[in-house]
Design goal:
alpha/beta; binds the ligand Cc1nc2c(=O)[nH]c(=O)nc-2n(C[C@H](O)[C@H](O)[C@H](O)CO)c1C; riboflavin biosynthesis; riboflavin synthase activity; transferase; Riboflavin synthase; 4-stranded parallel sheet; 156 residues
Length: 156
């Protein structure tokens, strides 16, 4: 039985963890979920490391929502470097799902983007654990999570 960690925040305006859990459960079986909610993105690195080292997660989804201000973007960058370090310290994937509030034109689009990016990365997490060949098949095809895929390009 694999264990999938989900770390989320109270700062986020959308319940990304529930979307991830719903998507994982409709994608397949063979895993259970450990959820850990913290105040914001800068608290995610240690939450993910605890999920991996203490709650024995095989992989973690880190769900956050950086605000639109410069200080929010600084926070997101600091959180991202922390998440990369946590991955290297533990040798486990932590898939960062950040939805920046200024990516969306209004609350409706922000909710759509939060839901779709989270669900698409939840499937990436499932694939990394159970179906790595599916990722290989999609190499170089311009996959995107949230908005439309960019699609592949060809030299001729
Ligand atoms: C400025 C700022 N911006 C954000 C943000 O855009 N998104 C977010 O999730 N959290 C933010 N935080 C809070 C920090 O991530 C963290 O929760 C606090 O500094 C407490 O450790 C802060 C302090």
């Amino acid at each position: 039985m694999k264990i999938i960690g989900i770390a989320d925040t109270t700062f986020a305006r959308f319940d990304m963890a529930s979307a991830a859990i719903n998507e994982l459960e409709r994608t397949g079986t063979g895993f259970r979920i450990e959820r850990y909610t913290v105040p914001g993105v800068k608290d995610l690195p240690v939450a993910c490391k605890i999920l991996i080292e203490e709650r024995k997660c095989d992989i973690v989804l880190a769900l956050g929502m950086p605000g639109p201000m410069e200080k929010d973007k600084m926070c997101a960058h600091e959180a991202s470097t922390g998440l990369i370090r946590a991955q290297l310290m533990t040798n486990k994937h932590i898939i960062e799902v950040f939805v920046h509030m200024d990516e969306a034109k209004d609350d409706k689009e922000l909710a759509f983007l939060s839901d779709s990016r989270t669900r698409e990365h939840a499937i990436n997490v499932y694939d990394l654990l159970f179906r790595p060949e599916k990722l290989r098949r999609n190499a170089g095809t311009g996959q995107r999570q949230g908005f439309a895929d960019a699609g592949p390009i060809r030299s001729r």
